[in-house]
C-alpha cells in the first residue's frame, strides 16, 4: 500500500507512524527542517499507545512534490493546517502524475470548509474526510507524542465516495495502534468535532489551560455553553446535522464524556500561539461566523473569541 502524507506536522507524523508500523510504503512531505530530522534520525512516536521508532531508511521524506519520483499512490493524506487547504489542493493538482485512477485524497484536517477547496479541483468522489479526536503533540521535528484519545478515527465521504475504497487504509492505521473505521455519518462527525473545537480551542488558548479546567470553572463553562448554542444554530440553519438533535443534548455529552476523555489536552490553538504560528481559528469559529452571516444568525460569543484569538495571533507573530 503506497501512501503519501502531505504535511509532516503532529497529525501527519502521528498517522504516518501508524502506517509505517503496519508496513505501508510511506512518503512524507514536510518543511525542510522536519525533512532533515526525519532523514537523519527517523520518525519517533511516544505517548499513550507506546513508543515506536522508524529508521530513516524505511520511508522517504521530501520538502516538495517536485522531489518525489514518479510513483502512483493509493492514498494521499492531507494533514496540513486548514488555512493551507487551497495551496495543498493546487499543489497536488499540479502533480497529477502521482494520482492514479483509484487514488483517494483523505483530509485529516480540523474545521469546516476544507473539502470545498479540493472538490473544486478534483472529482468529488475522490475526496474523503477523516474525523480525528486523538491528541498529537510535536516537540521535536521528527518526534510526535500521542497525548489523548477519545474515539476511533472515522473516515467517510461528503460527496458519495465509495467507503470500501478506504477500508484498507483504515485497517493499516488500526494495525499501527490507533483504531480507525469507515462511517456513513462523516458530516455528523465533523460537526460534532466543530462544536467541540469551537468551544475548547479558543478559550483554552485565551486562558492557557487544558480542556478539563475549562469545564470545571463556572465562568468558562458559561462561555462554552453560549459558543456551542450559537454554533449549533448556525449549523442547523445552514442545513447540516450532527448526532444530537439539540444543543442541550450535545452539551450533556460534551461535559459527561467528550471533555473528560481529553481533559489533560491543551488545544492546538494554544500550541500555535506559543510557537508564534498562525492558528486555525478561521476554519473553526470563523467558519461558524461565515455560516451565521449567510443565514442571519447572531453569534456574538463566537465572534468575541474569534477576535481575541486573531489579536493574540497577530501579537505573537510580530
Describe this structure in words.
This protein is of the alpha/beta class and 318 residues long. The chain has 2 domains: 2-183, NAD(P)-binding Rossmann-like Domain (Rossmann fold, 3-Layer(aba) Sandwich), CATH 3.40.50; 188-316, N-(1-d-carboxylethyl)-l-norvaline Dehydrogenase, domain 2, CATH 1.10.1040. Helices cover 45% and strands 19% of the residues. It has 12 helices and 12 strands. The N and C termini lie far apart (43 Å).
Mean of the pLDDT scores? Answer: 96
DSSP strand tally? 12
Integer tally of domains: 2
CATH fold name of the largest domain, please? Rossmann fold
> Ranges with pLDDT <50 over ≥5 residues?
none
From the spread of the alpha carbons, the general shape counts as globular
Quickly name the level 1 CATH class of the largest domain.
Answer: Alpha Beta
> What proportion strand?
15-25%
Name the CATH homologous superfamily of the largest domain: NAD(P)-binding Rossmann-like Domain
CATH architecture of the largest domain: 3-Layer(aba) Sandwich
Largest sheet: 8 strands, mixed
Helix count, DSSP H or I runs of 4 or more residues: 12
Amino acid at each position: 500500500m503506497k501512501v503519501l502524507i502531505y504535511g509532516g506536522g503532529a497529525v501527519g507524523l502521528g498517522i504516518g507512524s501508524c502506517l509505517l508500523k503496519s508496513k505501508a510504503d510511506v512518503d512524507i512531505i514536510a518543511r525542510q527542517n522536519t525533512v532533515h530530522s526525519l532523514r537523519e534520525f527517523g520518525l519517533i512516536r511516544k505517548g499513550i499507545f507506546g513508543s515506536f521508532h522508524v529508521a530513516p531508511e524505511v520511508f522517504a521524506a521530501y520538502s516538495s512534490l517536485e522531489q518525489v519520483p514518479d510513483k502512483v499512490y493509493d492514498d494521499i493524506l492531507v494533514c496540513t493546517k486548514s488555512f493551507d487547504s487551497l495551496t495543498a489542493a493546487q499543489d497536488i493538482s499540479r502533480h497529477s502524475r502521482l494520482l492514479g485512477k483509484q487514488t483517494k485524497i483523505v483530509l485529516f484536517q480540523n474545521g469546516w470548509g476544507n473539502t470545498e477547496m479540493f472538490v473544486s479541483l478534483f472529482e468529488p468522489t475522490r475526496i474523503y474526510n477523516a474525523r480525528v479526536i486523538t491528541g498529537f503533540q510535536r516537540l521535536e521535528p521528527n518526534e510526535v507524542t500521542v497525548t489523548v484519545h477519545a474515539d476511533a478515527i472515522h473516515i467517510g465521504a461528503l460527496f458519495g465516495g465509495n467507503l470500501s475504497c478506504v477500508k484498507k487504509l483504515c485497517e493499516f492505521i488500526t494495525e499501527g495502534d490507533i483504531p480507525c473505521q469507515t462511517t456513513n455519518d462523516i458530516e455528523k462527525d465533523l460537526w460534532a468535532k466543530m462544536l467541540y473545537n469551537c468551544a475548547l480551542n479558543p478559550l483554552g488558548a485565551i486562558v492557557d489551560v487544558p480542556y478539563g479546567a475549562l469545564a470545571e470553572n463556572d465562568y468558562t463553562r458559561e462561555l462554552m455553553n453560549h459558543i456551542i448554542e450559537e454554533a449549533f444554530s448556525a449549523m442547523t440553519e445552514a442545513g447540516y446535522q450532527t448526532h444530537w438533535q439539540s444543543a442541550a443534548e450535545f452539551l450533556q455529552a460534551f461535559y459527561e464524556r467528550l471533555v473528560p476523555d481529553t481533559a489533560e489536552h491543551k488545544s492546538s490553538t494554544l500550541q500555535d500561539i506559543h510557537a508564534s504560528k498562525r492558528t486555525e481559528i478561521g476554519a473553526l469559529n470563523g467558519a461558524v461566523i461565515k455560516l451565521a452571516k449567510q443565514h442571519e444568525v447572531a453569534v456574538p460569543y463566537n465572534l468575541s473569541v474569534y477576535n481575541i484569538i486573531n489579536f493574540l495571533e497577530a501579537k505573537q507573530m510580530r
